[in-house]
Request: fold
Amino acid sequence: MSEAIAQWRGFKAATRLGWKISSNWTQPLIFVIYSVLRPLSAAFILVIMYRVISGGAPGTGAYLAFLVSGVAFWSFVQYGFAGLSNGIVEDRGEYKMLKYVYTSPAHFYVYLLGRGLAQLASAAASAVIVLVVATVALRLPIHPLGVNYPLLLSASFLALLAVIGMAMAYGLLLLQAVDAHGYGELGSGVLYVISGAIFPITVLPGVLATLASLSPLVYWMELIRRSLLGSQAIRMFPALSDGDVMLRLVVTTVATLLLAHLVFTWADRQARRKGLIDMESNW
Reply:
């Protein structure tokens, strides 16, 4: 019981710390406004670019819904993946606290999970507000009473587990780098291209499309659009039912978590052996 209490206290402390650091110790309301405006501006920039390129051709409404829904929910990956992986490097190089976290009573996994979930509230607020504003402004075919919420929430839960697992492994790998500044955003940007967030993965070259189909994020994006748009959604996997896509999401999530655990364990062992955890800078 005492061990469970210690882990819970460590988790709460890590969550609070993650929120304070990610918000730069500003007021919660100001940070939430910033967290909302960032993806909202990104979504409308893409919309304007698409409308200029398409010239207002017929049938653009379906793709706008495809585009906006992907950008709205990508905030979970942006904050969860880039924020957590950068946080590991910052804890060592900028705040010089990583070595103390390693020796604290809370397990390192518990600490990182708390850091990763700290930004969930702002990411959720961003996704909801982007969808609401875009639905009203662009007249997207999204109806609150017609959304398949069980499918949306279950798919998002699995995807968030995969994102946090990947971020943990990637963040430990960054400890090996001489200069890891900005690598969190770089990794998130790579996932952005191959996740189906802004265009179907079928437009990718053959090898990249195959690699993308192994990512749980692709099936998450597919289920998001199916749950929000129903029959009007542009489908990346038209031959698959909702159950088939969910099964692929479960399988790829489990595989991703297993692979992330193996990479994390190896990177952790290497960091301990080389003394990378005690370094005061990543330069």
Observations:
- The chain has one domain: 2-274.
